[in-house]
Design goal:
Elements (H helix, E strand, L loop, with lengths): L2 H23 L3 H22 L2 H26 L16 H18 L15 H9 L9 H32 L1
């Protein structure tokens, strides 16, 4: 690993740890959700840095896209009337940094004690192009999953439009009664 690659990984890791810590400690739920999105993006960047492009793109599509939108819609639809809520400081927030060191040391030991694979064993490498051919297909075959993927995409789009419609109609009803 060269110097600049190490610097990039360090910056991504720092942003990941900072945003994850902020997601756990902030009192505003929308800010927590946005910090969680940033954490998911940093994890995807680490996957891309490691050369596992498919996992990185799945991380972006599934977690950054779908799960983050679900979290934000859930917060927006269920947090009516809580604007003036005061959240007290919890003493358990101080317990987190105390527990981080033993967990990190245990993980360091567990990963360090794993045996390295012998040189004659080659791990299969699936490139993004190969996965795309299997999923979407081309003139020589594949494409077994194109209809399920389109179905899931249409279903997620319909759920997003339905959630936005429900939120806007609920807001109109509340404004009408006030």
């Amino acid at each position: 690993m060269d110097f600049w690659s190490f610097i990039v990984l360090g910056v991504i890791s720092f942003v990941l740890l900072t945003s994850a810590s902020a997601a756990m400690s902030l009192s505003n739920l929308i800010h927590c959700a946005l910090c969680l999105v940033l954490s998911f993006v940093c994890i995807a960047c680490i996957y891309l840095w490691l050369g596992v492009e498919f996992l990185g793109f799945v991380q972006v599509l599934v977690y950054v896209g779908a799960v983050s939108i679900l979290v934000v819609f859930t917060i927006l639809l269920t947090r009516r009337g809580f604007e003036g809520e005061i959240i007290d400081f919890s003493g358990t927030v101080l317990l987190g940094p105390v527990l981080i060191l033993p967990v990190l040391l245990t993980l360091w030991w567990a990963v360090g004690s794993l045996p390295t694979p012998p040189d004659h064993i080659k791990t299969p490498v699936a490139h993004v192009a190969q996965i795309g051919i299997e999923l979407g297909g081309n003139e020589s075959g594949g494409g077994h999953y194109i209809l399920p993927m389109l179905g899931v995409g249409i279903l997620l789009t319909a759920a997003l439009i339905g959630g936005a419609s429900m939120a806007s109609s609920k807001r109109r009803k509340e404004e009408k009664w006030n």
